[in-house]
Amino acid sequence: MVDGKVFVWRSQDFLLNLFTNFTTMILKKTTKWIAAAAMLIVITGSRVQAQSVYKTKLSSSKSVFRLGLGLEGAYPTKNFSNFELGGTARLQYDLANNLSLTLTSGFYHFFAKDGHAQISEKGIYTNDLNMIPVKLGLKSFFAPNFYLSGEAGAGFELNHAQETKLILSPGIGYAGNKGLDLGLRYENFSGNHSNYGLIGLRVAYGFKL
Known about the structure:
two-stranded antiparallel sheet; alpha+beta; 2 domains; 8-stranded antiparallel beta barrel; 1 helix; 10 strands
């Protein structure tokens, strides 16, 4: 009688262990399959999202670049010049609907002021000053058609001391729907112990590339 009870208990233990091991094995395999499926879903979703973004960029690539040609006049902040006249070309790349990257270059001509001179360590200059600016900037639209801008770059003096100036230029502007771009800015030229600036207005027309 005792042997029969022992046999039943051992049988129950064997079946319980067998069931436990089988359940554990099923759970482990199920967990692995779930993890593999989740990874597959993530990878597939990432590829689909990347392809969607890539297709969106391809479909809109013809309209993200814009070229603007502008004429500008400015009032210099130093007495060596009484007026600046220039022309610039600006390449614009739209990062988003309200944010654009800009690259601007052109030609500045500072008209000399009678009885005044630009003074630097290299000499005293009473004639007109010519410069080529190269600036990288951002345009951020805070309201429909209105934007804030910031530019930084270098100004290469073609005469006078022939120095290279650091350019920093904050501004505000209006970009019309038909290509008109009006920009008001302050531009500072610094470095090599000779600093000056200007308050300028740029009138430009832009078109998509």
